[in-house]
Amino acid sequence: MLKVKIKVDNLNVYYGNKQVIKDVNMNVSDHEILSIIGPSKSGKSTLLHVINRLIDNVPGAKVTGQVCIDGKNIYLDSVNVNDLRKKVGIIFATPVPLPMSIFNNLAYGPRLHGITNREKLLDIAENCLRASSLWDEVKSRLDMSALRLSGGQQQRLCLARALTVEPEIILFDEPCSGLDPISTSKVESTMRELKKNYTLILITNNTKQAARVSDRTAFFLFGELIEIGETKRLFTAPKDKRTKDYITGKFG
Ligand SMILES: Nc1ncnc2c1ncn2[C@@H]1O[C@H](COP(=O)(O)OP(=O)(O)O)[C@@H](O)[C@H]1O
Ligand SMILES: [Mg+2]
To answer: What region holds the ABC transporter domain (predicted)?
Structure first.
């Protein structure tokens, strides 16, 4: 039996009186890559913002139901949101490195958590850059501004930065939408590597990408989870006609 890492029960999300997630039930296993596909405005990003409670920052947003990580309800008052966000990293479509050196981007989080020893910080930087497949490209210029990296390198830097605070879950919201095919394939192979140590959720508007990297895929349509299952099965033998219509390009 695979261990359940994230468990979502009867989840409903509203922005004001508009419901954008409708009674969603799903599990994500430890060390799996789950893709989420579906047309825009289906609530995919909202789901990720629920899982790391970024949604707390949206005035008027309301969440009902349960989200548990490692069996603990993350919406209990006793949960420390900073600890939760340390455990659940998120990568957005547009990489936004901090306007400082590559090294300082990586040292930023650990310093906030009290690590000041330079050797230790260099160690963390190297390990995280290796894990995000960027080390070989930047090891000789860690003092260069991160803003001088290419888009694909900046995306892997943001991933490395997310890794510096030792997360267990990494959420990717269309991480390759602005990248060329070579950078995209580097990010994809990095994700497959990361799976050994982390649980990953990947929102992608590229069904081929979902097919290439993920173990399971979930199809969302206008706030509803229509279908979730093994990626290969979902793409070759969808159970729901709406899934079939979406993956064959009939809408979205
Ligand atoms: N901060 C917000 N305030 C109000 N409505 C929002 C907010 N964020 C998203 N929405 C709305 O919620 C719905 C779902 O959006 P989203 O989760 O971004 O979907 P997706 O990622 O699938 O495109 C959309 O109709 C969107 O306009
Ligand atoms: Mg989105």
So the answer is: 6-247
Confidence tier at 69 by pLDDT (50, 70, 90): very high
Pocket test for ligand 1, best of 12, 19, 46 (most atoms within 8 A of CB): 46
Which range marks the domain in which residue 167 is found?
4-247
Q: Is 20 in the pocket of ligand 1 (CB under 6 A)?
A: yes
Residue 22 belongs to a domain: yes
**Considering the domain boundaries, does residue 207 fall inside one?**
yes
> CA 57 to CA 199: how far, in whole Å?
24
Does 252 reside within a domain?
no
Q: How far is the CA of 97 from the centre of ligand 2 (A)?
A: 20
Answer for the pair 128, 185: CB distance below 8 angstroms, yes or no: no
- pLDDT tens digits, 74-113: 999 999 999 999 999 999 999 999 999 999 999 999 999 8
pTM of the model: 0.96
Nearest CA to ligand 1 atom 7: 15
CA of 18 to the centre of ligand 1 (A): 10
Question: How far is the CA of 233 from the CAs of 146, 210, 216, 236, 239, in angstroms?
Answer: 41, 12, 9, 5, 9
Question: What tokens were used for 57?
Answer: 């920052």
The domain total for the chain is: 1
Quick one: pLDDT at residue 250? 81
CATH of the domain at 65: 3.40.50.300
CB 148 less than 6 A from any atom of ligand 1: no
Examine the pLDDT at 121 and tell me if it is beyond 80. yes
Residue 173, domain member (yes or no): yes
pLDDT of residue 252: 55
Question: Which atom of ligand 1 is the closest one to the Cα of 223?
Answer: 14
Give me the mean pLDDT over the 108-119 stretch. Answer: 95
